[in-house]
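Q: I have 297 residues here and want to know how they pack in 3D. Can you give me a structure?
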Amino acid sequence: MKRFLILGAHGQLGHELQAAFFGAGEIIAHNRAACDLSDPPSVRTAIRAAQPDVILNAAAYTAVDRAESEPELAMRINGETPGVIAEEAKKIGALLVHYSTDYVFDGSKNKPWTEDDPVNPLNVYGETKLAGERSIQQVGGPFLIFRTSWVFAPHGQNFLRTMLRLGQEREELKIVNDQRGAPTSASALSVGTRSVLMAGRSLDEVTGIYHMTCAGETTWAGFAQSIFAKAHTDKPWASVSGIPASQYPTPARRPANSVLSNAKLKAAFGVALPSWETALGEALQTLETQQARTLSS
């Protein structure tokens, strides 16, 4: 029986990884209180105590705009500590599974980005996540880095939950419509991760970087419109007006094209995530089920 150590257990991805890997082996799940990525010694202690076969690092500094004013903290968590995790994983012969981002690219390409395309992050967050990828690669142990995009879930802080709140509070929402990407549910990402690990491939052959997102693409405005179209409510939703990113300035620049190609993942493991629309429907169904239970309790 394998032992899985999940870091970032209380985050949206860490929560879903615990569900996806239920029954796959022994699960040790640490939140920030037990394993703080801003404190590398605590990370080393947690890994040495757990002695896992697989480390699933779902912990990260994810506040994209705030990273512009906290670059040192973001770099420590996203850029430096993944190398520490990789060092400890290598010492005990564990596989490290790490999650990165579409924001390592500058968005200038008109087609989906492949793993071999040149990286050129536009913001501090992207720079720190790229640094994390490189720190893991430099250590040289077995690893899988999954770049993903626009992650959402029925819990935590994300675009889905923000839209469900604002869509009931306001009559109109102005949402950026000139940035494209693939919304990816934390659940689909977690199930995809388990499928990769259960694919039976030799890790010496497949160690590397892979893109893993839901199929399809949309804009932020299109994502919001789909949320309102699929979610059930007694009150009307806010109308959505698409605007260019230039009319919604943020501290961190975002790439215009965040769509990632999943061809390498499919070729290596036979794994493909569902469409983002399907994943969205499942997340909304989970939310509705939770709300029904709350009302009946």
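Q: Anything worth noting?
A: The longest helix spans residues 71-92. The chain has a mean pLDDT of 93.
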